[in-house]
């Protein structure tokens, strides 16, 4: 089984990188039948913009489960992550377990990026994991990450593993709107 994690920050390394790294290590430690493959932006083109390698779409398409990780930027996801999402065909995430991991400076912004990602994931007909992981960035700026955050990451990982191991290969309908409106009439 393959978990592809998408590090959606154009400004590595940071708090999100630390959170994602702990999640990835936890999956490797506790789920040895899983391979973890991280995709990160490769080409910085401006202070908060970077683009993606040519194989990013293929690596997401081949995953059994995906984590989309983003810092909150201006009350939403990063433009960098959106650049990648806009390159994905519908089948890349259709019926696939996808978890949302976000960090922000302000606790009040806990749904800012998540709600936008949930809208986007419904375009794909993704199997969006019911519970997202959100953290205030200072949690991952501390020397020691507190036990509650680590427990949240473990539960978040387990959620994706259970969804993928039980539902992999299943196809859920009805088709999302994009499929219905582009279907050829017979
Ligand atoms: C361009 C930009 C916009 C941001 N917008 C918000 C925001 O709207 N709300 C918020 O709580 N934090 C915001 N932040 C803070 C980041 O979400 C926070 O510092 C996060 O930890 C950055 O990720 P990193 O530590 O992995 O680099 C913003 C940061 C940047 C650089």
Automatic annotation (TrEMBL):
Q: What class of enzyme is it?
A: oxidoreductase
Under Enzyme Commission nomenclature, its number is: 1.-.-.-
- Source taxon at top rank: Bacteria
Q: Which SUPFAM superfamilies match?
A: Flavoproteins
Q: Tell me one Pfam family matched here.
A: FMN_red
> What are the record keywords, sorted?
Flavoprotein, FMN, Oxidoreductase
InterPro entries named in the record: Flavoprotein-like_sf, FMN_Rdtase-like_dom, NAD(P)H-dep_FMN_reductase
Q: Domain named NADPH-dependent FMN reductase-like: which ranges?
A: 1-138
- What GO molecular function terms would the record report? oxidoreductase activity
Q: What is this protein called?
A: NADPH-dependent FMN reductase
Q: Which organism is it from?
A: Pseudonocardia hispaniensis
